[in-house]
Design brief:
This protein has 278 residues and is mainly α. It folds into two domains: 120 residues, no CATH class; 153 residues, no CATH class. The chain has eleven helices and two strands, in the order αααββαααααααα.
């Protein structure tokens, strides 16, 4: 990686960090503003998030879609998932009041946007020309992104519940929807992510059948992926049958997300960074 690319990664990371500091100051430390001032501020904030988001997309395009194939090492993989997370959040913020997540999403983006500079992908992924693999990869990244949002969302809900018991809410939490409304939104996100995760496993079976001649290879990635699917299936079933919510939702959501991290990102980190294999 040349010096100019390294500086570009650093600039994008610093822009996310600056937004994180801004949202922390305006959401968690200052009291709510008037309705007019708040509307104008929201429009401004929605636009400025596009600056690092677009620059980040340019970086990923040049890094992931290199001339000899798709380069999706651990740095690019995490950075892509986080970019999709911010992009989905940016679109979702047009329809839902989830402003409190900004102070949680931006620090994560600031850290992960810089990872390709620390862990560059040196080799292209094999068999990336297969259409089924490309579909599988795209759906999998979207599923990861939705579950990342769900995990941040459930952490925010846990903070709100804890502060409610303490009797005092910061300015940002006072402006969020009611806890039950946020809980409904959480399960919508989880359901959408679960559908994509199901499609990820299905396309993975088709890909494995086409490439290796068997429907599934039982390695660590497959095992943790299936465990994650089972956890989210149980959570959605428990919600539908028994009305699961609150701390149960927090624990099951984070457990399912951890399985996903171990399934793909964790395994790539161990192979590429610790063992030095591609």
């Amino acid at each position: 990686m040349n010096a100019s690319s390294f500086i570009f990664y650093l600039i994008v990371s610093l822009l996310y960090a600056a937004l994180a500091a801004y949202f922390w100051h305006t959401r968690w430390r200052t009291p709510p503003q008037t309705r007019v001032a708040r509307t104008d501020r929201l429009m401004f904030e929605h636009v400025i998030v596009l600056v690092p988001l677009i620059l980040h997309a340019i970086l990923l395009f040049n890094s992931v879609l290199a001339g000899d194939g798709i380069h999706l090492g651990v740095g690019n993989a995490i950075s892509t998932i986080v970019w999709l997370t911010v992009a989905i959040y940016w679109v979702g913020n047009l329809f839902y009041r989830i402003e409190g997540l900004q102070a949680l999403v931006m620090p994560v983006a600031a850290l992960c946007a810089f990872l390709p500079a620390l862990f560059p992908a040196t080799h292209a992924l094999p068999n990336t020309a297969l259409p089924v693999f490309q579909v599988h990869l795209m759906i999998a990244l979207l599923a990861y992104s939705l579950f990342t949002i769900a995990s941040l969302h459930v952490l925010l809900m846990a903070v709100i519940e804890n502060r409610l018991h303490g009797g005092a809410l910061p300015a940002a939490l006072q402006q969020l929807p009611a806890l039950l409304t946020m809980e409904t939104l959480l399960f919508r996100i989880i359901l959408a992510g679960f559908v994509l995760l199901t499609l990820t496993l299905a396309t993975g079976i088709v890909y494995s059948e086409e490439l290796f001649g068997k429907a599934m290879r039982f390695n660590h990635k497959t095992v943790f992926g299936i465990l994650s699917w089972l956890i989210f299936a149980a959570l959605l079933g428990g919600r539908w049958l028994y009305g699961w919510r609150g701390r149960i939702a927090v624990r099951w959501t984070l457990a399912g997300f951890l399985m996903l991290v171990l399934a793909y990102v964790g395994s790539k980190f161990v192979l590429e960074v610790i063992l030095g294999r591609t």
